[in-house]
Fold this sequence. Notes:
2 copies of one chain form a homodimer. By secondary structure, chain A is of the alpha+beta class.
Amino acid sequence: MAPTPPSRRRRSWWGWGWEDQALTEDEIAELAAFLNRRFGVEPDLRPKPALRNSMLPVPRIAPPDPLRPIADVSVHERARHTYGRAFRDVARALAGDLGGAPDAVVYPASIADVARVLEWCDRARVAVVAYGGGSSVVGGVEYRGEGGFDAWVSLDLTRLDRVVEIDTTSRAALVEGGIMGPTLEGRLRPSGLTFRHFPQSFEFSTLGGWIATRSGGHYATALTHVDDLVEGVTVVTPAGELRTLRVPGSGAGPSPDRLFLGSEGALGIITEAWIRLQARPVFKTAAGVHFARWEDGVAACRALAQSGLQPANCRLIDAVEAVTFAGVRDGASLLVLGFESADQPVDAAMERALELCRDHGGVVPQAPSTGGERDDAVGRWRSSFFRAPYLRDALIRLGVIVETFETACTWQAFDELHAQVTDAAARALQEVCGIGWVTCRFTHLYPDGPASYFSVFGMGRRGSEVAMWDEIKAAVSEAVLSAGGTITHHHAVGRDHRPWYDRQVPELVRSGIAAAKAVLDPGGILNPGVLVDPR
Amino acid sequence: MAPTPPSRRRRSWWGWGWEDQALTEDEIAELAAFLNRRFGVEPDLRPKPALRNSMLPVPRIAPPDPLRPIADVSVHERARHTYGRAFRDVARALAGDLGGAPDAVVYPASIADVARVLEWCDRARVAVVAYGGGSSVVGGVEYRGEGGFDAWVSLDLTRLDRVVEIDTTSRAALVEGGIMGPTLEGRLRPSGLTFRHFPQSFEFSTLGGWIATRSGGHYATALTHVDDLVEGVTVVTPAGELRTLRVPGSGAGPSPDRLFLGSEGALGIITEAWIRLQARPVFKTAAGVHFARWEDGVAACRALAQSGLQPANCRLIDAVEAVTFAGVRDGASLLVLGFESADQPVDAAMERALELCRDHGGVVPQAPSTGGERDDAVGRWRSSFFRAPYLRDALIRLGVIVETFETACTWQAFDELHAQVTDAAARALQEVCGIGWVTCRFTHLYPDGPASYFSVFGMGRRGSEVAMWDEIKAAVSEAVLSAGGTITHHHAVGRDHRPWYDRQVPELVRSGIAAAKAVLDPGGILNPGVLVDPR
């Protein structure tokens, strides 16, 4: 029996989000015209893939009777769970390549179900890949044969979507790991509290997925990483279930929670978490600042990050991105700046922040607004931002190779990292695509450095898209690492970042994680090949 | 050859800090009179212990020739490194019990020295206990025979005290692990930056010790835990040296740094760290708020913690502690409140904070002051605070059993925890000492709960002090755990908290840590018995 879908709207089985939110034919035509102007090419639109034209491997195992009520072996569900939503995932799906589909999708409805699935898989030697919203852009929710398992199941956790308890006194809640962002916020709303964690994937990702991938929220500073929003976790492993103590702070040995933050489905299944909530902000202010020179914007961001002001929003967008996505026509870089508080006015903070920006050559074309819809560059950029993943799918259909590289480094290292990554990307695009385009923005700011986000676009050749992407990915990743950046700031490691992760993290630490995995997952069935090599 | 001591002033070999800072005979007489009034007893002053009356075990090993220049087997150094500075450590030293003294103290002067010491110890089957400032109050720097090693060395890291590099752009520094608090701040001063991490042990503890024990600084909220101030670490283990990547943030797998934060000398020796610095605060304001009812003070603290104001200081002190240490004579609990910033005025924040306090029944007897010396309750409490460990030693000499219990729990759990811990402590004092005294204050505040700090005092019987302390410790620790608190918020686990740590942290997590330890320390020589059992 197939479980009831959470909503009548259909999720795309091959691309981002809702089927009905994909770019319209008109929008795609407009995009094609833009590409024509930009790259001088006549893009060739790939058709949307149709499952009836695809081939899926015959399932090699059948879930045992007790698990059949929670298993789904339908073509649509197996296809939808074959990949995450990286460029190479969408490109492979567009090419009809579904050879790696799971043998079954399993939808546990309780923590006990999760334990039963793991028990069966451990006994039957079946690999288990945890699947939340399926929004991984790093190859985190597929299976590429690591460890030589004959079969694999995609463990879809989205039926574990209850808010079990809300503690309004401590501002915390016990929530199941498979809950999607909007469901979580919807269920918290009556309490007046919010988790206030909005990764770009918010609509299509889960609490457990955020924790497993150390997800970064929308806010630029302070409480934005899910790492800091977790009070305690419940984890089911093949070796048993564990619950960490729910406390606001502790100094009792290495943090148990931090072992599972970033565990990417390889150390256990995060079935529940006590999470920290906040009051909904009521004081809000936002402004856009233009910087004629990128370097001045960077210096202003550093001053802001080190000021202690902790802006909720502080996103510096380079000129190319600013003109394209926010309609900034003066060739300036745009800084999207915002403050929020549930308790006290934020105007003084904005005033001081704008003063710091002006000290660094920033120009403020419009007075700060106090919330609501905005009609200026800030508002335009915001709309583009949430549409970006759908736009990406349309670009892929038009044959564009598109990828993002997100990293963090110190302020001292940043100028060089920016130069090296931009240069490596431009060279790779030149070599692989003949032509291309690189942009940069800041997503998060720390007193000691920025998290920078590079977007790369180039024209692909039909049939070679994945190989072209791989080549660009490798070249830019090398530049990120050699310039002192982390291979991932908030997208996680998955399979696509593994080679660089292995070089970034000391071997002894990786061996320590592998040893811990051997305790928690003796059969090595959990997301094999992620974080550590199968034994 | 004994290394040159870092200063001409002598560190006490048996008690806290500097010998010349111990309470004077007059002060001790005053304290005895106070105890007489309070407990109706005539305290019996134990003499300061004299090394010439003590017996030390004959060293069972001799460091090999290459290590002799950095080894010290003198009576004074072996005695000084026998214990940390817990009640039971001072009591044992006062009783002349130095049977557990290290066979040698080794003072590496370089990271290579540390590696050489570990290599020799691993080969010779000698246990190694890392020693920074020696301020452990949990039995973290002694050896109790765990794992059955015949000999042990105390690895004193205080010669690793260089500030290797200061990166003023990123506000960070590379610093060796053995640097003591005042030396660190002194060397940072010319840069205008500060680490701004002031645990009560600041003067007698090291950067590496802070990291190994997840130390909590003086500040009540925001950047106060050393966990959040570390960019990267260098760790020497018997299996080799490792360096984590220095970045402001990363989502690449479980955080390597967080594996060593709280590792308590059992997973490796923290020889260096890149640490985050801040500009020195220039805007400061402080105020004292009186609450006639403790519960109102608690409610005010919760409102402050959840307001987003992030006070630097927000220490609620109960009435007994307030009258004793801050001269608050109206029977009120005292809230010591403070704000600091290097960039912007903090008066508005103080104003809003005081408004929240008044909403909860707080009375502000004196307008906020903007730094400098204070003559009021806040000033008096501050002086007592830094003198407290010396006072504790004098109390121990006067036969008082004195201990502190520090924990954290949610706001929801706090009232019950406060009642249970107070009750358990009072009952234990009644049973063990016949009479006693329990106080409580908050040391740190989180939006989801307070870190509370209980002080326990009772009269001991000569010769039974350690056994009496053990009994009280066990009774109160049970209460902490059963009420939902962590067994330690910032004092660490060491040997004294092990039984409760083992119950608090899931067995699978502890097994995972043990497995990681087996990779990093295959011979199990590092601080055996701390965190995990010897194999």
